[in-house]
Design goal:
Layout: H1 5-13, H2 15-23, H3 34-47, E1 55-56, H4 63-76, E2 80-88, E3 91-101, E4 104-110, H5 118-133, E5 138-146, H6 158-161, E6 162-166, H7 168-174, H8 178-192, H9 214-217, H10 234-242, H11 248-254, H12 260-271, E7 276-277, H13 279-286, E8 293-301, E9 317-326, E10 334-339, H14 347-357, E11 363-366, H15 369-382, H16 387-395, E12 397-399, H17 402-405, E13 409-410, H18 420-427, H19 445-453, H20 460-493
Parallel strand pairs: 1-2, 4-5, 8-11, 11-12
Antiparallel strand pairs: 2-3, 3-4, 5-6, 7-13, 8-9, 9-10
Length: about 500
């Protein structure tokens, strides 16, 4: 079996993934990782200049062409070769940065994360093994990842943006295990032939990366299963599974240690219990809301490489908000909205508009308020002249999630969650005004984030259409909050 460094790492996680890739790729779920791959490419391209001038080996479907070009660059005395490519038998790897170090070379693996993970060590160990077999003197092995503490001011400082972590000792110690790992991975895939191998589900289905074949390999589980229990760690779920506890009936029979909310989920689903309503609890929550009431929701995006001053890698950048304002309980709301200009830093304009739309010392309602409060506090720190007003908004935010988090209202439809994606259809089933599926182009927060991040790359006509879609999506988020609050009031009043 031919192995590249990515396939080797997949095989380390679970060799059945490679078998599925070969014989049953149609069973893979779409995990929406295109944005992750794009981010990795952006970071990788920028990191090439970390050590100064470099030469990149062009990608070619014919890997022998990449190997040939690498050999030429080695012979010519290049000190930094990016995508340096090597073959040993049926093993292939392209090194992100091969950096000259005296009479030898350093392997530098670039990652778009902000820390070192164990699977990266396997990746680097595989590369070190191949290069050593090809006759290179490997003196050091390093992981180059983003520095989460870096704050951009002016031009990017690659020395500060990236952290170079020395992994040499660990990777050298792993060399002895690489041949047996290769043999085990290849033997598993080649030995199975075209007959699907039997392999039970395990924590490898979840980490270090979610497996696209997880649903296929877990098709024997009942629905719902122990893996559907909300806010139960993956470790605990697999412990119960290995004890033979898979369905909700077995949970009720054997009574493993779960908290009361988790047992409520199990019992409600298994017995199809009616909705549970704590009217006094609901009333206590909503009685804290004063009017006029400002329903607020942000949309944000993030960049691995901070594009604007005052930003860190992967910092959430608010670019849009929707605001529904009710003058009294049940009153028809007025709607306000903001959407930043594509290709610009939207934070200052958003903060100014937010202060114009929300007076000081009024009650603001958010769903999962910690997110909105975090973004407002960041803007207050960034713009001192707006800080007092922004922090007034921050300090007066209330959380519409609390009645569901405390389970003052609970329904089988919530599946143990208090995420708004479950709460909304449970509280407002079939409401045509709240049909996210009827929206054009943008239906989820991740789609909104990606749409704004790439907005400047479109034609004026496309930009106008995407902006319209973004506004429609964000508006629906705060309209949903209005409708949910109306339903809570109905429940609190009901006899």
């Amino acid at each position: 079996m031919n192995l590249s460094k990515s396939r080797y790492c997949r095989g380390i996680q679970c060799p059945k993934m490679l078998w599925m890739d070969k014989y049953m790729p149609e069973k893979a779920a779409d995990l929406g990782k295109e944005q992750i791959f794009e981010t990795g490419n952006i970071v990788g391209d920028l990191a090439m200049g970390y050590f100064g001038p470099f030469t990149e080996v062009p990608y070619a479907d014919d890997k022998s062409e990449m190997v040939r070009r690498t050999a030429e660059l080695l012979d010519s005395g290049e000190e930094n070769i990016c995508e340096a490519s090597f073959v040993s038998g049926n093993l292939f790897c392209a090194v992100d940065i091969l950096h000259k170090n005296g009479g030898g070379w350093d392997i530098v693996e670039v990652k778009s994360s902000t820390s070192l993970h164990e699977i990266y060590l396997h990746d680097m160990a595989f590369q070190c093994y191949i290069l050593t077999r090809c006759g290179l003197n490997i003196k050091g092995v390093y992981n180059l990842h983003l520095n989460s503490d870096y704050v951009r001011h002016g031009e990017l400082d690659l020395g500060e943006l990236f952290t170079l972590e020395d992994c040499t000792e660990t990777v050298f110690a792993m060399q002895a295990d690489v041949p047996s790992n290769i043999e085990a991975i290849s033997g598993y895939v080649d030995g199975a032939g075209e007959n699907e191998p039997v392999m039970d589900i395990s924590p490898a289905c979840e980490a270090p990366y979610e497996c696209a074949y997880k649903g296929w390999c877990a098709r024997h589980l009942p629905s719902p299963s122990v893996f559907d229990i909300s806010r139960l760690t993956a470790k605990k779920k697999y412990e119960l599974y290995y004890e033979g506890i898979t369905g909700f009936g077995e949970i009720l029979e054997r009574r493993p240690k779960l908290n009361k909310n988790q047992y409520r989920q199990v019992e409600t689903a298994f017995y199809h219990l009616p909705d549970s309503i704590d009217r006094q609890g609901i009333l206590d929550c909503i009685s804290e809301y004063t009017y006029p009431l400002y329903h607020l929701d942000f949309e944000t995006t993030q960049f691995a490489i901070p594009p604007f001053d005052g930003m860190r890698p992967f910092q959430q950048m608010p670019f849009q908000y929707s605001l529904h304002v009710q003058s009294a309980p049940g009153a028809e709301p007025e709607h306000y909205e903001f959407l930043g200009k594509e290709g610009t830093d939207p934070r200052r304009a958003l903060a100014e508009r937010l202060c114009a739309d929300i007076p000081e010392d009024v009650c603001v309602l958010a769903y999962n308020m910690g997110f909105e409060k975090g973004r407002i506090k960041e803007m207050a720190e960034l713009f001192p002249d707006l800080s007092s007003h922004l922090m007034s908004i921050h300090d007066n935010i209330r959380d519409l999630m609390i009645p569901f988090q405390k389970q003052y209202y609970y329904s089988e439809k919530l599946r143990g969650s208090y995420s708004i994606k479950y709460v909304l259809p449970a509280m407002c089933p079939g409401d045509p005004e709240l049909d996210y599926g009827a929206l054009e182009g943008v239906h989820r927060g991740d789609e909104a984030s990606a749409a704004f991040a790439g907005l400047a790359d479109h034609t004026p006509e496309e930009i106008a259409a995407i902006r319209k879609n973004l506004l429609a999506y964000c508006r629906l988020d705060t309209l949903a909050m209005v409708k949910i609050l109306d339903k809570l009031r109905e429940l609190a009043r009901a006899e």
